[in-house]
Amino acid sequence: MTGDPAMPRPIPPQPAPGADWDTRFGGDEAFYGLAPSAFVMDCALAFVPGARVLCLAEGQGRNALALSARGFAVTALDLSAVACDQLRARAKELRLPVEVRQQDLGLWMPDPGTFDAVVAVYAHMPRPLRHQLHAMMIRGLAPRGLVVIEGFRVEQAGRPSGGPRNPDWLYTPDELRADFAALSIEHLATPDVVLDEGRGHQGSAAVLHFRARN
After folding, report:
1. Which among 17, 29, 108, 205 could bridge 161 via Cys, Cβ 3.0 to 4.6 Å?
2. What pTM was computed for the model?
3. Under a CB-based contact definition with an 8 Å cutoff, are residues 126 and 168 in contact?
4. 104 and 79 in contact (C-beta within 8 Å)?
């Protein structure tokens, strides 16, 4: 007899949430480069002075740091503990008051009306979770606040320049129109661009730019 069949089998260790991202960011402190998104910086011209800005899935913080340097009160969320530690260290080095929180966006529920702008750059995830996230973005938005989204659209599938391989994780304009129907859409564009953003985004890409106001 090799063991008591009534005894439960031990559960093998499970990877920590964000472990894959920890590995990716741990090997390169600027995996997506250091420069912020040009689209986000253009949208920031419409933010009110001193705006409370939330950056979702912010990774190593290239957008959060640039927005903080412009005088906005920035909070950054990301699943990766490594990325959060890297962002805190860079913010301290640059003397920028960025609030950094490790957060699973599938469990995120903001207080209503907390932020003047909510920014999501390449925040790709399964479609049902993305719909949920968009609802939470609206919940957290203050009156007259702005939602800013940049990401890969479905035409990106198969291109080597970055992004998830599963097309279900990619954006469509119709999805954003539906998810943010309660807001006033100020900008929605689907350009093809050439990315040069660290090792993570290199080459021709099909992206989507979206801005809407509460």
Report:
1. 205
2. 0.88
3. yes
4. yes
